[in-house]
Amino acid sequence: MDFSGALNIVLVLVASCLLFLLACRKKKFKNLPPGPTPLPFIGNMHQVDVKELIKSLRELSGTYGPMYTFHLGSRPCVVLSGYKVLKEALIDKAEEFSGRGDFPAVQMWSNGNGIVYGTGERWRSLRRFAISTLKNFGMGKRSLEERIKEEAQFLMAEFRKTQGKPFDPTFFLSCAGSNIICTLVFGDRFEYTDKKFLTLLDLINSNWKLMSSTWGQLLFTFPKIMRHVPGPHRLIYKNYLKLAEFVRERIEMNRETLDSNHMRDFIDCFLIKLQQEKNNPDSHFSEETMSKTTVNLFFAGTETVSSTLRYGLRILLRHPEVEEKLHEEIDRVIGPNRSPCMEDRSRMPYTDAVLHEIQRYADIVPMGVPHTVTRDIEFRGYTLPKVPDLNIIPLLCTSQFDPTQFKNPNSFDPTHFLDENGRFRKNDALMAFSAGNGQIETSIRPRLVVVGLGCVWPSARSVFFAERFSADSVK
Ligand code: HEM
């Protein structure tokens, strides 16, 4: 029997389908910025080091400029690099660039729900609600500031136990960073020895590590396939389920003791919101949304803050001349007998500049999160269509290290945030929390981080450099 005729027909059919798909794709993405030539299926992955994806993307911008197309597997991504283009996109066209792109590690579990990976109107309402709720916790007797000061004391107690001997503060900083979010979200902090708390920290830590591992990068690049391939990356999903189970228990505890006249935490506020919205068939607020958003806040707020603190301490240890000046200001404005507070900030330009410079230099979310456009737009002469498979990758690190915005981008230099008279000077190229739309919630986030840093440092520093201060002088 001669199969060659049938084989030819199959080949012609396959080739026609491929050509048809290519033609459709060309039509959909008819005017994207140029970039390296992709191969079928793997895209441009053969041109980068998967373990050093960010470094490779930065290098490609050296060849293709501030805006180029990179194929992550078969999905095209428009990579934005450098302050100017990031500002034009994230600030000047904030609404258009506010769509959420692919982040499979989070999406596998969140399924389009929750504040971090929600979309459309639901995401917008959730965001408004979260921002105003968290802002309200910024005030009053149990304000965020008070909670942070309190946590700083617990942290210091742990540091003091080491009696000025060298030690690794990582664990304690994670506990402290996380506890600040815990008091906001769950109304209370945990002891640093609490088994449940430690399990939660392990789950969060494990997910961050998995996301940045080669398996995590493969999941990011080939989500459709990697979802079905066995491997450590699948633990990300399981860890999220465990976090969600803990949150579910806390929600039940809150529900049983809920008092609308005395809101203790974010969960209480959400439960009340659910009651208010129960007769609204179009409500964006549901039990599932509450659980996912709570996990999101807990997850997003834990590792980020503690990593910033850890980097900060490390940077200061390497820059004794900065640390010296910082401490002179702390001694002069705050003195040894009280905790720092937000009001001190305006009188401490050098400390403020150091905190900002740490956020720039530590650069803990260098690639931001992938975005999409919310409508078809013309941008810098190219057409970016509103389709789910076109990701926008804001390389935030390229703004934070942009030589046109910072005179010494690769060095740790607090004068990046000081004017010639030593006054604090803002610099919009600092995009640690992203920019534009992201700035709405930064009204709470820097406060949290900055006060956290401010509270911890004066005390922590004294312990680290115990030879200059007796432990009794540290409040
Ligand atoms: C130094 C600490 C932090 C850094 C560097 C950081 C950085 C970021 C970045 C780069 C994004 C992506 C923004 C975007 O592209 O739209 C983000 C999103 C987010 N972060 Fe943080 N973050 C920090 C602390 C926190 C804290 C303490 C919380 C919780 C209170 C938090 C909650 C969130 C949420 C909910 C989102 C999603 C926001 C949205 O979809 O609009 N982050 N963060």
TrEMBL record:
**Superkingdom classification of source:** Eukaryota
Q: Which GO terms describe its cellular component?
A: endoplasmic reticulum membrane
Transmembrane feature ranges: 6-24
GO process terms (BP): epoxygenase P450 pathway; xenobiotic metabolic process
So which cofactors does this thing need? Answer: heme
Question: What protein am I looking at?
Answer: Cytochrome P450 family 2 subfamily AH member 13
Q: Which GO terms fall under molecular function for this chain's record?
A: arachidonate epoxygenase activity; heme binding; iron ion binding; oxidoreductase activity, acting on paired donors, with incorporation or reduction of molecular oxygen, reduced flavin or flavoprotein as one donor, and incorporation of one atom of oxygen
> So what family is this one in?
Belongs to the cytochrome P450 family.
| Membrane topology according to the record | Peripheral membrane protein
Query: Which UniProt keywords are present, listed alphabetically?
Result: Endoplasmic reticulum, Heme, Iron, Membrane, Metal-binding, Microsome, Monooxygenase, Oxidoreductase, Transmembrane, Transmembrane helix
Query: Where is the protein situated, by its record's location annotation?
Result: Endoplasmic reticulum membrane; Microsome membrane
Q: Mind giving the lineage of the organism this protein is from?
A: Eukaryota, Metazoa, Chordata, Craniata, Vertebrata
Q: Does the keyword Membrane apply?
A: yes
- InterPro entries per the record? Cyt_P450, Cyt_P450_E_grp-I, Cyt_P450_E_grp-I_CYP2A-like, Cyt_P450_sf, Cytochrome_P450_fam2
